[in-house]
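Schema walk-through. Below, the input block comes first and the output block second. Nothing else is stored per chain. Lengths vary across the set, and this one has 278 residues.
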Amino acid sequence: MSSTDNHPHGEHGHEHEHEHEQGHSHSHDRERSHGHEHSHSHEHGHDHSHEHSELSEVDIRVRALESLLIEKGYVDRNTLDVLVDTYETRVGPRNGALVVAKFWTDPTFRAWARQDATAAINSLGFSGRQGEHMKVVENTEAVHNLVVCTLCSCYPWPVLGLPPAWYKAPAYRSKAVIDPRGVLADFGVTLPAEVSIRIWDSTAEARYLVIPLQPEGTQGWSEEQLAALVSRDSMIGTAIVAPLLPSGVPAGASSGSLPSGAAGATSGAAGAASGAAS
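--- output ---
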């Protein structure tokens, strides 16, 4: 699912267009009356049987088992935290960063990934559960892509590792659709007004990897050098890959985790959802 939005969301001024890959398109007239434009293209075919709770039944069972193992002294909480951090922020995202760097530098791979991202990514050795139906979406000077799973937490594990807690939170899942610019602001990202934001709804049938814009001044860099610039969040769309200063140092770190201001994503999403319903 994708949506393009240059304006705040809700029933206060947009036009929504939905394009479905099932072979039909329609527009929501009730959302046309206020003058903004917001388009969605949906890729259906998945069955979300999850409730709208933050924790799934599996998550609850895992936490209960974890607590029991820690209580019995079979595992150490600090060790578990290190393992989770490794797969959530380092090993997994490192794979995705290498895909991005390859996409930037190799025209043949870039064309392949555009046509069949799953096969192209698999060729680099990154495959497995939750990485079977990959698609790449490219940021441009005119379009910024943002990925969300509105009903649960579908996420491309082979290239991004474990999903961060905020990605699974109802606050992010709702606010990303209602107010994507607000979500980006929560992560410290402000885009020019003329840049459209396209929202992609990750599903069991399609997992998305955002290809950030390559920073100016990095042409000719090796894949390893480029991969070091790419953060997990930039491949979800909640961060950008910072341009380089004349010294060659990135002009600000890409967001790697939900910043302190993202508490506003929780309260803001609830408020926005309430406002849209009123």
